[in-house]
Amino acid sequence: MSLCFLLDGYNILKKIPQITDYKIKEDRPSFINFISRFHPQGRNKAIIIFDGYGDEQLKYVKIDVLFSKDISADNYIVKMLGKKGKKCYYCVVTDDRQLQFRAKNSEAKVLSVGDFLNPVFKRMKAGGRKMHQEKINEYSKEAQEIKKELERIWLKK
């Protein structure tokens, strides 16, 4: 049985300051792209569940996006956990304590938003440092070339 992550969409979205502009509908695509690009779920499937209605059902590689319509995303997730004949083992990602409790009662694994996203942020930070160092090296080379050119012109070297 494979592992499938159920992501409490808005609960997670609010915890990512890098992409949250507090305009929930406008932030959804950024969040979906973030998950699609950085794969915090690893090679496992992820299903992002948002409250309410969305424009469409979206599918990405190993990511599904669902809208709970007339029930809360929490109830929708619990309903998914209770389905008979499940094809995968679920891991629910949320900081909502009540949903965490309900998921554990349904024998699902539970991860906090921090535990789910921190490995991604560490990779991003490490990658950012590497890019920063490459820029410094690039600027240093340019600075050396400019210095040599100025010495040649002004000091006639």
Helices and strands in order, then pairings?
Layout: E1 2-8, H1 9-13, H2 24-38, E2 45-50, E3 58-60, E4 63-67, H3 73-81, E5 88-93, H4 97-105, E6 109-111, H5 113-154
Parallel strand pairs: 1-2, 1-5, 2-4, 5-6
Antiparallel strand pairs: 3-4
| Total domains | 1
Number of helices: 5
Topology, number of strands: 6
Q: Report the top-level CATH class.
A: Alpha Beta
Overall mean pLDDT score? 82
Distance between the termini: 73 Å
Calculate Rg over CA atoms: 23 Å
Strand order of the largest sheet: 3-4-2-1-5-6
CATH superfamily: 5'-nuclease
CATH topology: Rossmann fold
Q: Quote the beta fraction.
A: 15-25%
- Pattern of helices and strands: EHHEEEHEHEH
Low-pLDDT ranges: none
Largest sheet: 6 strands, mixed
